[in-house]
Amino acid sequence: MKGRLLSLAVYGLSTLLGVMAFVYPFFLPTVQRKATMGQAHAQDAPLLLTLLVGLCFVAMLLEVQAQAGGAKLVALLGILVSINSILRFVEVAIPGPGGFSPIFFLIVLTGYVYGGGFGFLMGSMTLLVSGLITGSVGPWLPYQMFTAGWIGLMAPACRPLVTLMRGRGRWLEVAVLAVFGGVWGLVYGAILNIWFWPFAVGPASQQWQPGMGVIDAISRYLVFYGVTSLGWDMVRLVSNVVLILAFGLPTLRALRRFQRRFAFSYQPDVQVAL
Amino acid sequence: MTHRLAWVSWVGATLVVLSTTRNPLYLGLALACIAIVATRVSSESWAGPAPISPLRFGLVVIPLSALFNALTVHVGRTVLFRLPTWLPLLGGAITLEALVYGVLNGVALTGIFAAFTVLNQALPVRSLVRLVPRAFHQVAVVISIAVTYVPTTLRQFHQIREAQAIRGHRTRGLRDWIPLFVPLLVGGLERALQLAEAMIARGFASSGETGHDTLTRFVIAQGLLALLIGWLLRLVWNQRVLGLALMLAGFGLVLAALWVIGQRVPHTDYRPEPWTGRDWAVVLGAAIAIAPFLLPLPGLDRETIFFYPYPALTAPGFNPIVGLAILGLTVPALLSREPSVVSNHTKKLEKLSSDPL
């Protein structure tokens, strides 16, 4: 009971802090105006936010890890992550169509079949490992890991809808997942952009305009998003939908078959031990 | 081989320098230092070239950021031209100051990107994995398995493709990838099953101890709470000092819990990386570089660090002492070529074989 409460507290607090870190840049102009004007304000926001997001991620990861001990899970995760990281190679090797990225469909499907905790680990570990082997570790990594983890964490939310429509094992199920993956393709891009958004917001003196508030900051962000990455993210949306539609059914079938096969448990022989 | 933590301190120092100042002279100097280290590192690295070169990144990001800032910020005295005001957000005066600030932002971002490219090239994957804190023992195992199985999985993919090609399979459309992907997935799951059985047979995680008990959980929750309250104090009630203290305390609590959990995980270090004088030199250089940016040193005029183009563009000042300090970032490039690992190893072997046992 106490353990459950504590773990709920950790989940809640780190999610709250994470959301605050993501939303904070929109309030930056307002906050900076409140702060002392005279001396120029050092631009520490991006680094601090990256640190904070990293810390929340660490707290959350510790909780998930504590509940997900065991060799079966570790082995399964390791292998699936390595398959998915190879798909990321495809993304880096073929720098063709914008934000095309084949890694999300497996994150969505494994999260959906094996549960939110597994999906969280799958998403964040995929981004970490593929970042390590393709040489793209950077201040954007905590954001990537956090957001991709969220995708996997949220994937089981599709289950009630599928049960309601009695679509399990049919095209309907895949269609629901495709919509989910498509929407997250866009949201992922929007969240990721925030890591360098504080750079674009600039110092307080740049915002020294009457009536410049949160709404303006958000509308600026939307323009910024439209200019910089809407095109990319549209490609990601389309690629997620297409990949889930094309590979969804056979992949789900394989994952479910192995879910049953992995349901063995090992009980040590006490007699021998004594 | 420079130690991984020395490299991390170098990257941290470049991040601090690049994100604290907007003085183009200091930014340029820092960028030059990174470039020097990058050429040195890439000449020694066995890793391939970076997926996106920092030069290309800069060529895209700097104009974009300049354009965006100039179009959406209408502050500054030197007006270049005016857009009609009925345009939402874009309408108004387009100023030189906003344009310059946008360029400087782009330069800082490019510098950060370049610094991380250096880190990726300087450290092999093995060292990067070791940066995972020890408390994440299980996660680190997952990462190691994933990294280890990447070549196997690639080989398996080629085998599947060959086998399908022999059967007359061709990849024309997206659907033709299913006979390639599904065997890869099923084969991988099959291998995961074997691996899990092997790990259980060797007693992996059989003790059930993760080192993460109620107390550490409680401490972490407290730390997060302190962070949240501290941040709110700073933001909403403008209690800057108290808020900062609480936030630091929160950070400290979470890190302490991490350290304690890490200490409980028994581990053996098979190949310890030595910490040598070279590493001290790198850390010292990094510390010198960030000192004027973070500390109000007596007798040092820090006015030039806080250069801003607003409200009217002026020529940026240059303080030679700050400039000299930034040069501390070049230390990794100045160190002598390191003795090759192979010769070191053979020397050890020779010594071993000559030792009378």
- The average pLDDT of chain A is 76
Number of strands of chain A: 0
Alpha carbon gyration radius of chain B: 27 Å
The helix/strand class of chain A is mainly alpha
CATH architecture of chain A: Orthogonal Bundle
Task: Describe the largest sheet of chain A.
Answer: none
| Rounded Rg of chain A | 21 Å
Shape verdict of chain A: globular
What is the C-level CATH assignment of chain A?
A: Mainly Alpha
Task: Count the E strands of chain B.
Answer: 2
- Structural class computed from helices and strand pairing of chain B: mainly alpha
Instruction: Kindly report the oligomeric state of this protein.
Output: heterodimer
The helicity of chain A comes to over 70%
Q: The biggest beta sheet of chain B, please?
A: 2 strands, antiparallel
Number of domains of chain A: 1
Helix % of chain B is 55-70%
In spatial order, strands of the major sheet of chain B run 1-2
Can you write the helix and strand succession of chain A as a string?
HHHHHHHHHHHH
Q: Summarize model confidence as the mean pLDDT of chain B.
A: 80
- Spans of chain A of 5+ residues with little confidence (pLDDT < 50)? 34-42, 207-211
What do we call the CATH topology of chain A?
Arp2/3 complex 21 kDa subunit ARPC3
Tell me what you see in this structure.
The complex is a heterodimer of chains A (274) and B (357). Chain A is an all-alpha fold. Chain A has one domain (73-264): Arp2/3 complex 21 kDa subunit ARPC3. Chain A has helices at residues 2-34, 45-67, 71-93, 104-114, 116-134, 141-154, 158-164, 171-193, 197-201, 214-228, 230-261, 270-273. The longest helix of chain A has 33 residues, at 2-34. Chain A is globular and about 60 Å long. Mean pLDDT of chain A is 76; it is low at 34-42 and 207-211. Chain B is mainly alpha-helical and 357 residues long. In chain B, strands 1-2 form a two-stranded antiparallel sheet. At the A-B interface, α1, α2, α3, α5 and α10 of A face α1, α3, α4, α5 and α6 of B.
